[in-house]
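Input structure tokens:
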């Protein structure tokens, strides 16, 4: 029998204890000058404070950030651990799976727990899109006349040279493949904004956000670090991108890639961080704390680079097949809205009821700080299951270069348990 492609993992006793994130702030605004390390420290400290879990119990720090957005970027996972209170003896690693990085962190923690290496893992995804550098990679030996080349890393990184297509171009390819119109994409984006605004108004999003103010992080015997918020507003306590955005208004925007995608129906460029605590069942039971959800399994698969946005569809299928579940068993989906047409293509391919997808808004409204997004999606779907009483939820994302990733969590408090 032919081997199945992709990675699949089932966990026996792995739990999402708790987690929190910073607000996601618009590009070049409230958090624009904050280092991703300091945003990650803030999220991690808040995760410990909110959960009551001692930082001293962490066995490993799993951190992710895509762009080297500060000169000390090499130290990102280590410094997030140290300045959040994790013991000096505890190691840390940097993990990267592009837009799936945050979910990959949760899975790496789950693997370490299943192997008996640790009982508690700290997972932190953090991203400063604003601080993506203007960079040159070929001038170490000097500048040649007429060949000085500095480029915007944030823009250039969105091109896949293998397929010679931008990330936006991959969404346009899916729009053509699935016959998705501009009107459909704008309606989808308007719904994302509406749902996010409703989730802000009813307090759901506030439940996963820790407000950020200027703060200094001390570490005895070492240099202090700090996060700084401009004096105006001085405090950031909610996502800044959600705004009334009716489809008629979105329809006025010009195409960004020559087709259906615009700046209004694509994921917002924002800065932010998210942290989660992933634990062994024995640790959770011993601590007496009620976890948010059980982490049942996860998967990562490859897809053609030119239609990278379809990645969640085969990832979700592979996950359900491995776990013996059906799409109808899943009460809530959080599928990253990298682009409106991309997310619609996944929904259409899987034939999912939109009423179960991104019910509190998605990245079009909230934003997509690359490495933080997967942690946010996993926390959000777990929290939404607790609120709605559902049993199973899936967080999933497409990945630049042609991959998909998915994580399935269970609300063990659900009234749907058999």
């Amino acid at each position: 029998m032919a081997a199945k492609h992709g990675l699949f993992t089932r966990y026996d006793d792995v739990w999402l204890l708790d987690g929190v994130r910073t607000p996601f702030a618009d590009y070049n605004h409230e958090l624009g000058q904050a280092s991703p390390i300091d945003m990650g420290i803030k999220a991690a400290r808040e995760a410990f404070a909110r959960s009551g879990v001692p930082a001293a119990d962490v066995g490993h720090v799993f951190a992710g950030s895509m762009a080297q957005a500060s000169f000390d970027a090499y130290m990102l996972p280590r410094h997030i651990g140290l300045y959040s209170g994790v013991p000096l003896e505890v190691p840390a690693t940097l993990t990267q799976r592009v837009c799936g990085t945050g979910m990959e962190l949760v899975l790496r923690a789950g693997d370490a727990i299943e192997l008996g290496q640790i009982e508690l893992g700290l997972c932190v995804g953090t991203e400063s899109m604003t601080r993506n550098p203007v960079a040159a990679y070929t001038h170490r030996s000097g500048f040649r006349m007429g060949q000085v080349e500095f480029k915007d890393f944030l823009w250039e990184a969105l091109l896949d040279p293998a397929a010679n297509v931008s990330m936006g171009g991959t969404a346009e390819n899916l729009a053509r493949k699935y016959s998705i119109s501009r009107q459909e994409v704008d309606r989808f984006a308007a719904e994302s904004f509406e749902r996010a605004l409703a989730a802000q108004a009813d307090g759901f999003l506030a439940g996963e956000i820790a407000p950020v103010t200027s703060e200094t992080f001390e570490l005895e015997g070492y240099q202090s670090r700090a996060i700084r918020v401009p004096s105006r507003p001085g405090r950031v306590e909610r996502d800044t991108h959600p705004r009334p955005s009716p489809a008629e208004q979105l329809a006025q925007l010009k195409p960004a890639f020559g087709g259906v995608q615009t700046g209004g129906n694509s994921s917002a460029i924002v800065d932010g961080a998210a942290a989660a605590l992933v634990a062994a069942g024995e640790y959770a039971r011993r601590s007496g704390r009620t976890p948010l959800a059980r982490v049942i399994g996860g998967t990562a698969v490859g897809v053609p680079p030119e239609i990278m946005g379809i990645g969640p569809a085969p990832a979700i299928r592979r996950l359900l097949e491995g776990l013996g579940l059906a799409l109808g068993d899943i009460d809530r989906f959080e599928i990253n809205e990298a682009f409106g047409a991309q997310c619609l293509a996944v929904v259409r391919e899987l034939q999912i009821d939109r009423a179960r997808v991104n019910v509190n808004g998605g990245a079009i409204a909230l934003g997509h700080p690359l490495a933080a997004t997967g942690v946010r999606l996993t926390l959000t779907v777990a929290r939404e299951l607790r609120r709605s009483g559902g049993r199973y939820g899936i967080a999933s994302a497409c990945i630049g270069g042609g991959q998909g990733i998915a994580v399935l969590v269970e609300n063990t408090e659900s009234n749907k348990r058999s």
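The longest strand covers residues 7-21. The domain at 12-132+206-239+265-287 is CATH 3.40.47.10 (Peroxisomal Thiolase; Chain A, domain 1).
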